């Protein structure tokens, strides 16, 4: 009998009910006529390693990992890509046939693909970027921006120490700006990125003054609920090019889908609609 196992993948988080990934991957599986499944899995932290070591035995070819497991999987994985090591977290795991778990982080890739597709005229080398927030998402964004050749990054976070830690990890092109001073460097920025959770439904608004925004600047928000955050609305009014955060979620999923199911999926309007459904 030939081995015709149907490939399985999914997303592990805790909680997981609100993840858009099952709809997104489900859409691609249907679009490309692939006999596979992608399912949400709510796994408590203490069960993470047992689950990850068991899933390959049940036909899983890999999983996405989300909050709160993205850092914890780094200690479990057998192989880690350089970019995941630099970020200190992984979001995409590949279960290899030899039983080894390979960990990658595609958040920075997703961020950059989204930015290039939403703001095709943006030139990374044109000038400084202002990054708001210094959490896990900021680490992925900063590593991608530095790799793309952004000359200088102003990094501002409510908890200054966290921003200083990032500066220590990423080097001198990152300059820490006090949270209350962030508005003062807006006029120098060719790119503004919100990586904080401020502006998300149910959270407070981002209150960094944006009066100094240059009309030539590109403004992007990692928050995608709502799709048009106050930051993006303000930026639109200032004449800036804006890029919403949903595209990052879609693009970061591409490498995993390709590795697991053998087809490189396209991100288009149908993909967006499927994720929002
Ligand atoms: P993620 O992985 O999405 O980056 P995180 O690591 O929890 O999540 O980081 C959340 C970010 O939003 C941090 O930069 C956090 O600032 P602190 O480091 O000071 O906590 C920021 N953030 C969350 N709530 C905030 C608030 N009310 N005011 C300012 N920043 C806030």
UniProtKB/TrEMBL annotation:
Stored InterPro entries: Aminoacid_DH-like_N_sf, NAD(P)-bd_dom_sf, SDH_C, Shikimate_DH, Shikimate_DH-bd_N, Shikimate_DH_fam, Shikm_DH/Glu-tRNA_Rdtase
Residues given in the record as NADP(+) binding sites: 82, 133-137, 157-162, 222, 245
One GO biological process term: chorismate biosynthetic process
Active-site residues from the entry: 70
Enzyme Commission number, as recorded: 1.1.1.25
Enzyme class: oxidoreductase
Protein purpose: Involved in the biosynthesis of the chorismate, which leads to the biosynthesis of aromatic amino acids. Catalyzes the reversible NADPH linked reduction of 3-dehydroshikimate (DHSA) to yield shikimate (SA).
Protein name (record): Shikimate dehydrogenase (NADP(+))
Protein species of origin: Falsiruegeria litorea R37
